[in-house]
Amino acid sequence: MSEQSSGGTGWRGSCEGWLEAAYTALIESGIDGVKILPIANRLKLARTSFYWHLKDREALLEALLLRWEERSTKPLVAAAGSYAETEAEALLNVVGCFLPTQAFDDRLEFAVRSWALQDDGVMARVQAADAERLSALDAMLQKWGHDPVDADVRARAIYLVQIGYISMQARETLAVRMARIPHYVEIYSGGARPEPREMARFHARHGFTEGGA
C-alpha cells in the first residue's frame, strides 16, 4: 500500500516517521513514553494511521530494538574488526566509534539499558549484545598477541569504561577526550602508546584540530 490511503483520507505519515518519533520519545521519556497516541499527537496524525505501517505497539518496540542493534552493536563489532597497522591503531578504531557524532548511538544505548531494567526480554537482548561486543574486543586483542585470559580482562576494561561513560551520562569536551585517549590506549594495550602520526590521522578522521573545543 502507498502512504496515501486509497480512500483519499489523507496523509498517514511514513513508517520511518513513526519510528523516528518513537525513538525520540524513548530518548526523552523512556519506554513509558513510547505509546501510540502520544506519538500520533507528536506527528499530528490520527492514531489509526499507525496501523497502516505497523501491526501494534510490540512491532514498534521490536523496530526500536533493531535500530538499537544497528546503531550500537554493529558499529562496535565493525570497529573491532577493522584494519589497523598496529595494536594502538586498532584500539583507536574502537575508542573512536564512541566519540560524539560517530556511529555508536550512546543516547539510544542509555535508553535501552534503562528499558531493560523493566523488561526481562529486553535485558536478555542487552546481555546478548554485551557478550557479542566483548567477544569482538577479545578476538581483536588476541589477534595482537594477548593470551586468552589477558585479552578477556582487557576487553572488559575497554568495554566497561565506555558503558560507564554512557551510564553515568559523562560529558567531556572533544579536546579533553582527545587528550585522554592516548593514555586509555596505553592502559588497554599494556604499553602500546599511539605514535604522533597515528594520533594525527585519528584527529583528522574525527574532525579535531589541536586547540579545538
Quick overview of this protein structure:
This protein is mostly helical and 213 residues long. It is 65% helix and 0% strand.
Structure in words:
This protein has 213 residues and is mainly α. The chain has two domains: 49 residues, Homeodomain-like (Arc Repressor Mutant, subunit A), CATH 1.10.10; 134 residues. The longest helix is centred in the middle third of the chain and has 24 residues. It starts with 14 loop residues before the first helix and ends in an 8-residue tail after the last helix.
Task: Identify the notable features of this structure and list them briefly.
single chain, Arc Repressor Mutant, subunit A, 2 domains, 10 helices
Specify the biggest β-sheet: none
Discrete helix count? 10
Shape: elongated
As residue ranges, the low-confidence spans are: 1-10
Strand content: under 5%
Radius of gyration: 21 Å
**N-to-C series of helices and strands:** HHHHHHHHHH
Percent of residues in helical segments? 55-70%
Query: Averaged pLDDT, please?
Result: 91
Quantity of strands, as a count: 0
What number of domains? 2
Helix-and-strand structural type:
mainly alpha
Query: How many angstroms separate the termini?
Result: 48 Å
